[in-house]
Amino acid sequence: MVALASSRITPEQRTQLREICQQMRVSGKTAKQMAELDFRLHVTLAEATQNELFKVLLAPVINQLRDQIILTWEDFPRPVNLVFDQHEAIVAAVESGDAEAARQAMIKHLAFSREVLEDISKSQKDKDV
């Protein structure tokens, strides 16, 4: 998705992505506010593909995705700067039109996100015991 976005992103979407990244760096946000920004970043990247199929594929799961991101931010077990850095790397690669760098940055981010979800799941299991 980000590889395609890197060749199709509009100037307005570039601006939106930069603004979202900047807003995430501002301290004092609640978990819900951070989750909403995180969600908006990923939706904007999907929209930047200019491919209607992504909207169709996301529509049935969009609310579940939003809820999962909120839950993740509420129990985030790692330094949040890591997420900011990853988001900014993805955005920078997309903005520069570097499809391969965008792909690699997203792969790194998704692997990190998986680790975070596993940490949260393990923590929840430990609490239940």
Question: What would you note in describing this structure?
Answer:
This protein is mainly alpha-helical. The chain contains seven helices and no strands. The longest helix has 30 residues. The radius of gyration is 15 Å and the shape is globular. It starts with a helix and ends with a helix.
Order of helices and strands: HHHHHHH
Strand residues, percent? under 5%
DSSP, total strands: 0
- What is the CA–CA distance across the termini? 40 Å
Query: Count the helices. How many?
Result: 7
On the 0 to 100 scale, the average pLDDT is: 92
Cα shape: globular
Fraction of residues in helices?
Answer: over 70%
Uncertain segments are: none
Structural class: mainly alpha
Major sheet characteristics = none
Q: What is the radius of gyration?
A: 15 Å
Question: Keyphrases for this structure?
Answer:
single chain, mainly alpha, 129 residues, 7 helices
Short characterization:
The chain has helices at 2-8, 11-25, 31-47, 52-58, 62-74, 81-96, 99-128. The protein is mainly alpha-helical and 129 residues long.
